[in-house]
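Following up on my earlier thread - several people asked me to post the actual chain instead of describing it. Fair enough. Here it is, all 447 residues.
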Amino acid sequence: MPFTTRQRVILLLLLGASFMFAVDFSILNVALPEAGAGVGLGKVAWITTAYALPAAGFTLLFGRLADVIGRRRLFMAGVALLAGASLLGGFATTPSVLLTARALQGFATAMATPAALSLLTTTFTEGAQRDRALGLNGALLSGGFTVGALVGGALVSLLGWRAAFFINVPVALTILAFTPFLVVETARSRKANLDIPGAVTVTGGLLAVIYAAVEKDLIAAIIGVALLAAFWLIELRSPAPLAPVRILKRPTVKWGNYAGLIVFTMEPAMIFLLTLYLQQVLGFAPLATGLIFGIPGLASVAAGVIAGRFIGRFGSHKVLTTGLAVQGLATLPLVFTGTDRLALLLVIPALFIGFFGHVTAIVAYTVTATSGLPDTEQGLATGLTSMTQQVAITIGIPLLSTLPLHPALTLDVALTLISVLLIHHGLRRRTTQPAKEPATSVVRSSQ
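Reply from S.P.:
Thanks for posting it. Predicted structure:
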């Protein structure tokens, strides 16, 4: 079924928001050294950590809140907060103000991202329409990261690091101006009671685990695991759970989000390690490094455009495992790179193929993890997928960067390919069981 005119306009608006958040993340990564020096911040890594903690820690909570208080309302609040936080960061003159701005940007991401994704999944009918919409979302998300990497260095060089913050403001204001006229507020969930104990334990647990991964703090890791275990026990007994255990036990939700964890842990970590390799070993300048990633990045945009069609034809199960396998296998040649610039003959094709598989897997895992659920739980489902993405991006780089380049890439390949087998087995068991729920894209894959 083709998109209506209204659906096209809504899609443009929501994809524009996703693109903005992706560009923001990518550009600010380029601007970190200059921003830290500009305000006298010694440990630049805290600029990333200040963003990552709330972005990952509060995503599940805000995803559920979207179901309770309204998705459009929370989406607009998140975009408005991003605009204000970006202004604050652009005018920052001290480390405390800059870190506060980055933390607020993280909160804005946690608020707006799951709300936007749930608006997307409820606007488009499950099946071919939603698959196409999520494919375009994946394309724009990848395009945003690519554009940010390509233009970030030039923008910061020409206008200074503050431009990396200010660029968000006009885009955010445009989205806020059009959203009330284009997007209809969604019906609120009948279960309006919010699970406060569950919200406290899961948010605290995620914050502690992410902090432990970034700062390599064992005590924080123990506290985080204990809080997440408490969250699970609370959800088993709560009359109105934040994340009903039944949804967490769904094979599509469970294996879809596990796939997302692998997708977003391994690939961004590989990109980070390869960035250091290109600059520190092969001696390329930042701008040249951006171009080396940017050209293969075109494959990721293409993958997002056609991934929905792949899913409609082959099913999300097959597309997910195939895309993830391509991502892992394309990383394998990078294990054998040396110190000669001729290594680019290996790096660029590997990135081109790997990015295609990576984005295909992103679209397929999002479809898998959000299919077969009622609209009243789409905020929770998209909150889970967004949380998975944020947590994975946050922990992947500090974990793999503890190893030298080649052992880290070897571990990347091994974990990815082992996960392909696990996901294939888990989803195949689901699709061969008698269907007791509405047909999903994953169910279609077994037909």
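Residues 431-447 have pLDDT under 50 and may be disordered. That should answer part of your original question.
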